[in-house]
Amino acid sequence: MRVRSIGLGVSLAATILLPTVAAAAGGGFVAPAGTVLPDIVEAVPDHLAIHNQQQREMLRFTTVHINIGEGNLQIRGGGQIAECTIDGIDYAQCTLASQEFLDRSGRVLGSRPAGAALFHPEHNHWHQGSVALFDLRTELLKPETALENGVKITFCFVDVETISQTGAEKKQFPRTYFECNGELQGLAARWGDSYHQSTPLQELDITDVPDGDYYLTHTADPNGNWVESNEKNNFSWVQIRLSQQGGNRKVTVLDHSPCVPEAICGFGGNP
Question: Are 130 and 154 in contact (CB under 8 A)?
């Protein structure tokens, strides 16, 4: 099936009010004093493969969202329920999500809107909207060259893998978010949320994409819903070549993002 984008065109049938923090000059947001902010980066896409599916060619890949910051990314969504329409599909249970700002003890100091969340009945848990954007581009630094099969998808945020190397680090940065069906989701500091290429929606339809060299790009938080300590490191990429191999096509990795920070090359066999 063709990937459906989620996170665009959200309209809520009811007004849902969530606490916010003061806006800073230039349209940004200032977190409350004492907040320890997260920093979300994206692992280099890995385990690339082409799968034939109902006469379509799907490029599948593994990705990981990683919090390299000092603070947790904590998202609340699921308490205030309203109907919504996303990409022309009606959902009975939706809410405006919010990012909660925490101090080092985990105390909530404030919050701000962080996009929409919806309850997906097939998956039986809440999905956070506008988490990541995948593009297949002809030129790396030109988003306008993205092909039409660029897609925005949603995920359940939970701690799956840690990047802590020592026992002391693991004790300092414990696993915090476990449940997909709860109101609170997130990524604890030094933890990653991994999505194997077999996970639904980890794919792009490349049926009509001709053979050649492309960039598969992965951008965290494309709509700027989260406040992070560093807003400039949300982008990773892998350069690939699509070519014929007998009656099928193959994908070959040619290059990838520099491993800065090192964590983006540290999961799932990335180079």
Answer: yes
CA distance 103 to 211: 50
Average pLDDT over residues 69-91: 75
Q: Which two tokens stand for residue 17?
A: 């009010």
3-state secondary structure of 257: coil
Residue 261: asked if its preceding bond is cis (omega within 30°), the reply is yes
Q: Which of 181, 177, 69 is nearest to 120 (CA)?
A: 181
Place of tokens 């929409």: 116
User: Which residues sit opposite 80 in a β-bridge?
Assistant: none
pTM: 0.84
* Interstrand relation of 73-76 and 46-53 (parallel, antiparallel or unpaired): unpaired
Give the position of tokens 């938080």.
Answer: 221
Residue type at position 48? L
- Distance CA(144)–CA(132), nearest Å, equals 17
Classify residue 167 by its DSSP letter: H
**pLDDT tens-digit series, residues 59-71:** 999 989 999 999 9
Nearest to 139 by CA among 213, 236, 206, 208: 213
What's the one-letter identity of residue 107?
Answer: R
Q: 200 and 230 in contact (C-beta within 8 Å)?
A: no
At 157 the three-state DSSP class reads coil
> Domain residues of the chain, as ranges?
11-265
